[in-house]
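Data deposition worksheet. Section B asks for the primary sequence of the deposited chain exactly as it was used as input, without tags or linkers unless they were present during the calculation. Section C holds the resulting structure in token form. Section D is free text for depositor observations; keep each observation to a single sentence. Incomplete worksheets are returned to the depositor.
Section A, Depositor: J.P.
Section B:
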Amino acid sequence: MVLSGSKPLIGLTTYLEPARFGVWDTETALLHGVYVDSVVRAGGVPVMVPPVGAGYAELVSALDALVLTGGADIEPSRYGQEPHEKTYIRPSRDAFEFGLLDAALSAGLPVLGVCRGMQVLNVAFGGTLTQHLPEAIGSAEHQPALATFGTSTVGLAEGSRASAILGPEIKCHCYHHQAVDVLGRGLEAVGWSADGLVEALELPGDAFVLGVQWHPEQDLDDRRLFAALVAAAREKGSS
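Section C:
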């Protein structure tokens, strides 16, 4: 609960990956620093949440909002498919994030899904994914090269939460080789790229549950999505 005058605690899901720092070469819970910077600039306090354990209720009770960050592909068996040869997975992270998301939704916590995070939202609601876009649409513009962000213009539906925050259109950074195929039950597609891919989805109603396929954390000059999440956390905490 956000106390009067205090800043909301914003949970950021993290990677569990091999990494090198100092004299160490070891498995590490880590996250791109721009996510942390984005939360700070939006007026929140970032809390890095590693994908371990199953204390979902305890975590949710300590947080005021949740960001499902980018990362590896979701295990395709979760949406009834065999893995494509280009699909790379982290099943332990899947198990953790789907459990955490379920607890967050049950508690009414504001949720922002970024890239993989939007896909987690879609699959959690029974949707499916296209596993490799270059094969499906004949273009790699959404992930032009390894560790290289593409650019995309996304149109947003009038009357949607996303449009209320960002306006009718946004130019953004993208890096994904998968995308929403069948939309999850109860979700609404509210943003599309020029080639017709779903780039934003949300849960209708008063709860802040929004997913974007692009990477808003890569533009530190545009804090609108993170600021809206922080504002939703404040509103929920004061109710």
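Section D:
Residues 91-107 form the longest helix (17 residues).
The chain has a mean pLDDT of 95.
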